[in-house]
Amino acid sequence: MMEKKKILEEGLLELYLTGELSEELTDAVEEALEQDKSLKEHFDALEADFERMGMEQAIAPSTAVKIRLNNTIDQTKTTKTNWLPLSIAAGFALIFGLSTFWLYVKWQNAESNLSTLQSQTSQLQRQVGNLESEFRLTSNRFKSINNADVLPLVLYGNQKAPNGKAVAYVNHKSQLVLVNPKGLPSLPKDKTYQMWSDVNGEMINMGTLNTDNELVPLKYIENAESLNITIEPAGGSDHPTVEELVSYVIL
Amino acid sequence: MKNSFEDHEVITRLISGNDTALYQLYDKYSGALYGVILRMCRDRTKAEDLLQETFVKIWNSIDTYDASKGRFYTWAYRIARNTTLNSMRTKDKLIQTDDLSVYDNKETNEEVPDYTELKGSIKTLEPHHQKAITLVYYRGYTHKQAHKAMGVPLGTFKSYVRQALKQLRETYTKKLVYIWIFLELMA
């Protein structure tokens, strides 16, 4: 802090009074005035003398000046606004606006997250459903195959289907027949494999075999002596085309 | 001593945009400020314009006034002084490195009308003290310019100002004592 003695000796208060000091010195003098009560008293007295001198040297201006001032102020008054409360209000409004916007953005994000989650959940549910049904199907097939009552029979293809092979699972107890035709050579679109049971020399239709499926359930025919596979026109026939016999197995 | 309580209240109203407060301050201080402006520019019409400009500036920038740093009069005086000096610089349109030349021109054909003469207690001061006070407070000279104008060292000039102010205070005090004695005698 600048010393009181220095300020007084250098006449800095007088210079401060008329606003002649540099910004730096003004700050220094103001700081000293704030902290040194006796210096402040000194300055107060100086100001009082200065004002008294000013009043003594006063010259009355013409009344026209006040009238002109009045007019000027009236004009500016409409434009002069007290900005402080307005700016505080504007500040609050801005904060409110920004926070509202922020909350809105958050809310929108949450909404979209929620809908994404919902669609993911329903997708998962669908997948789980599919898996469950597939699992049930597979385990049913497995149960129906891997069973002591089931008789697995392999049907090897003749010269019409060389290296062809189908597996039939026959359960006499529950009267079910399942056939895996995957091993048979694939046919043109207008043809299909069809299976027949031989009962007392009569061929009875058991159903067609689509080689795309792994296990095809077929009709169980009682007292069948053999199982036969023929190639028939697409959709199957009522009577087998014996010339097109591909494979057979004796029961 | 701070502003009177009355001033404080008026200034508060002025800050809140009350123009009546401005006219109250005008009634109180316009004479003193006009005294300063007129003695500086020595042109009655110009001085009246500058006085008006000063009060418009006060009206527009009252919220920058800090009462804890000094009296309203001191603050208004600075505005009046700067407004006048700026207008004189612009008017003279002199290309100069030293502001003093503005005054040098004036100084040569100085015809000081009666209304710019100082009055009252200042006249009881010694001539060099009077001149020091006049230059600094009523002509808008900086201390640096004024000591050159008077042809004395800066330190000496500063002590002139201090002594002058001190003597003025003593004069005021004496006056107060006389008034007090007078009132006592009247009682």
From TrEMBL, chain A:
Keyword terms: Coiled coil, Membrane, Transmembrane, Transmembrane helix
Protein name per UniProt: Anti-sigma K factor RskA C-terminal domain-containing protein
Coiled-coil parts of chain: 107-134
Gene Ontology BP annotations: regulation of translation
Keyword Flavoprotein applies: no
UniProt domain Anti-sigma K factor RskA C-terminal: residue ranges: 88-241
Pfam family, one: RskA_C
Cellular component aspect of the GO annotation: plasma membrane
Organism: Flagellimonas lutimaris
GO molecular function, one term: sigma factor antagonist activity
Listed transmembrane segments: 83-105
Keyword Transmembrane: yes
Origin superkingdom: Bacteria
PANTHER family reported for this sequence: ANTI-SIGMA-K FACTOR RSKA
TrEMBL record, chain B:
Biological-process GO terms, alphabetical: DNA-templated transcription initiation
Keywords assigned: DNA-binding, Sigma factor, Transcription, Transcription regulation
InterPro entries tied to this protein: RNA_pol_sigma-70-like, RNA_pol_sigma-70_dom, RNA_pol_sigma70_r2, RNA_pol_sigma70_r4, RNA_pol_sigma_r2, RNA_pol_sigma_r3/r4-like, WH-like_DNA-bd_sf
Domain RNA polymerase sigma-70 region: 25-92, 122-170
Protein name, entry field: RNA polymerase sigma factor
Keyword match Nuclease: no
Family membership: Belongs to the sigma-70 factor family. ECF subfamily.
Domain of life: Bacteria
Species of origin: Flagellimonas lutimaris
Pfam families, per the entry: Sigma70_r2, Sigma70_r4
Molecular-function GO term, any one: DNA binding
